[in-house]
Write a structure and sequence with these properties.
elongated; 4-stranded antiparallel beta sheet; Aminopeptidase; 2 domains; Alpha-Beta Plaits; 395 residues; alpha/beta; 25% strand
Length: 395
């Protein structure tokens, strides 16, 4: 079966590249993937499938039925949204949408899963069970398209026994595959702080309640939440990426606006962290004569790879690409809304290498120069098809 899948993967590789380039040139932001969804639905219809459109508004779901289709169901997921980044690459498929770019590989994920659909449809008489294809919107934006698709029943009728997700990896050489059992990615919460004081002339500090000084103490002080309140063996990150103090050289403003992210891999500590962040920020501000409004927007949960499923998937990948092309993944404090699926159904989220230093394809995700070695689009569709069939065979 591996040889048959690899042969089919070679036949769909060119289309996978073409589809990826079309999607890359025509990116759409989270929950606005209307044209992307239409494109995906047409591709699936042309294969011979009957896609369900409009799931969570712009999601697309399709079912490939083999023999005895209700016997066992495996779900495969791809995300479709792009990021608000202006592309800096000079390539024929450069984004045509100003300020929007597929900078996280979702174009590749979608194109790869379409390729997988081609392969599995041609093999539908050779396997028992069904494969559910899930093309989801909004991975990059809270509340996460996965959570909305789950609410609309994507994990029902039929119910999958396992779910697989594939994501490009810019730190892994092209077509190598990465796995990690158990905890893999972090929960992601967004922090919004408004520090209030009393502004005025910078030359008259005795008349002020300086919100910039207060905000500075809060940013530094909150690092104590991580360094002194968290157990050292419990991975966690608190980072601030946006500070707005709209004054000038000699004018101190009334307010300072701060945005940040809090990430961890333990739900008990997550809630304790929220309490400590809020209490400390407000306490520092009050002690310095000001105040601080704290809003914490709960994001994605932590992502956990089911140990036995991941072990089976790793063994299947080893058979498909060779042991030398399967690598271990480290814990990663980035977030992924695939985590919502992993909290409900046995899941495996693995990485597909796309790095090629010889060709200068080394930029990380979420950067203006992100790109992939498209050779991965021969490996990706075939591997996912093989993993799905191996899991269907598991009893």
């Amino acid at each position: 079966m591996i040889d048959k899948i690899k042969a089919l993967a070679r036949t769909v590789a060119a289309d996978a590249v073409a589809n990826r380039r079309h999607l890359h040139a025509n990116p759409e932001l989270s929950f606005l993937e209307f044209n992307t969804a239409k494109f995906v639905a047409k591709q699936l219809t042309d294969i011979g499938l009957t896609p369900q459109e409009g799931v969570a508004n712009t999601g697309v779901v399709a079912l490939i039925e083999g023999r005895n289709p209700q016997s066992r169901v495996v779900a495969l997921r791809a995300d479709m949204d792009a990021l608000p980044i202006r592309e800096a690459n000079d390539v024929p498929y450069k984004s045509r949408v100003e300020g929007v770019m597929h900078a996280c590989g979702h174009d590749a994920h979608t194109a790869s899963l379409i390729g997988t659909a081609h392969i599995l449809y041609q093999l539908r008489h050779d396997f028992e069970g069904s494969v559910k294809l899930v093309f989801q919107p909004g991975e990059e934006k809270i509340p996460g398209g996965a959570s909305l698709m789950i609410k609309e029943g994507v994990l029902q009728n039929p119910v999958p026994v396992a779910m697989l997700g594939q994501h490009v990896a810019t730190n892994i050489p092209v077509s190598k595959i990465g796995f990690r059992e158990g905890m893999y990615m972090a929960s992601t919460d967004e922090l919004y702080l408004v520090v209030k004081g009393k502004g005025g002339h910078g030359a008259m500090p005795d008349t002020l309640i300086d919100p910039i000084l207060i905000a500075s103490h809060i940013i530094v002080g909150l690092q104590q939440v991580i360094s002194r309140n968290r157990k050292p063996a419990n991975p966690s990150v608190l980072s601030f990426g946006k500070v707005i103090a709209n004054g000038v050289t000699n004018v101190v403003p009334n307010e300072v606006y701060i945005e940040g992210t809090f990430r961890c891999m333990d739900e008990e500590w997550r809630e304790e962290g929220w309490r400590r962040i809020t209490k400390m920020a407000q306490g520092i501000a009050e002690a310095m004569g000001g105040s601080c409004e704290v809003e914490i927007r709960k994001g994605y949960p932590f992502l956990k790879n089911h140990p036995e499923l991941t072990r089976r998937s790793r063994a299947a990948a080893t058979a498909y690409v060779g042991a030398q092309n399967v690598v271990d993944l480290d814990l990663w404090l980035a977030g992924e809304d695939f985590a919502f699926y992993s909290q409900i159904v046995d899941s495996c989220f693995y990485r597909l290498g796309t790095r090629n230093e010889a060709r200068g394809i080394t930029s990380g995700v979420h950067t203006p120069t992100f790109d992939i070695d498209e050779a991965a689009l021969e490996t990706g569709p075939g591997l996912m098809a093989w993993l799905a069939l191996e899991e269907l065979r598991h009893k």
